[in-house]
Amino acid sequence: MSVSLPALVDEASRYLDAERIADYCPNGLQVEGRGAVRRIVSGVTASQALLDVALEAGADLVLVHHGYFWKGEDACITGMKRRRLQTLLGNDISLLAYHLPLDVHPEVGNNVQLARRLGIRVEGPLEPGNPRTVGLLGRLERPCAAVEFARHVAEVLGREPLLVEGDGVVERVGWCTGGGQGYIDKAIAAGVDLYLTGEASEQTFHSARENGISFIAAGHHATERYGVQALGEYLAGHFGIEHLFIDCPNPV
Keywords on this record (predicted)? Predict the structure, then answer.
C-alpha cells in the first residue's frame, strides 16, 4: 500500500488544524521527496542520527516534532544543515514537521499523550483564551507525595527527573512538554500543587520554592516522544501504510 505525498500532507495538516496556529517555524512539508509514501519513520527531532537510521529503515517520509527553518536562524545552507538536507534530498526522502500543532492537539498532542501515560486527568488549558498557550491543567488519578510522583515519572519516561519538592500532597497539576518552564507562573496562578515540564531555568527553582509548589523537569526530549508516535500511527492507520518510531536518545 502507498499514498500520494500531497494526500498524506493534506490529511496531517487537516487533522492537526495546523493552519490556525501561528508558530516559530513552517508546519507541514519542509522537504519534498518522492511522490508516493509507503513507510513513515517518525522521531522527535530531524537530527542527522534520525535521518541516517530512517534511511537504513527504508523511509519514504520522516515525520518529526522538531524540524528546520526556525525563526531567526541563519538561512545559509552550510555545515550541519547542508548535511541534513543532502541526506533527505539525495535519497528522495520527505520531511514533515509539526511543532505547536502537535503540542496542542486534543488526541495526539504531546501534552495529552504525556498525561495519559502519567495518569493525569485533563481539566483544561493552562491559560484559557490564549491559543498559543500549549500547557494544560489537570488532577492526578491518585493524590500522592511529590517524591512518589517523581518516581512514577522516572519509571514511565525512563530517566531520572529533576525534582524541586514543595509543600503538601500533589493532586492538582499543570504541565507543558518540552521547553515550557516559562509557564510556571501561570500554573502557580491557577493554583497547582506541582508543575511539570521538560526543562528548567535558573529562576524556575525560585518560583517553585517561594510559592510552595513542587516542580519537575523531566527532559525536553523525554516529554515529547509521544505525540509524534501517535500522529504517525494515526496516518498509518488512515492510509494503510507502515509506520516506525525511532527514538534517538537525548539526555536533555
Answer: Metal-binding
Location of each CATH 3.40.1390.30 domain in the chain = 3-99+224-245, 104-223
* Per-residue cell: 186: 501561570
Distance between CA atoms of 159 and 155, rounded to whole angstroms? 7
CA 54: distance to chain centroid?
19
Binding site: residue ranges? 65-66, 103, 220, 224
0.90 exceeded by pTM: yes
Share of the chain above pLDDT 90, in %: 96
CATH 1.10.10.10 fits 3-99+224-245, yes or no: no
Residue keyed to cell 517520509? 61
Q: Which CATH class is domain 104-223?
A: alpha beta
pLDDT tens-place string over residues 182-218: 999 999 999 999 999 999 999 999 999 999 999 999 9
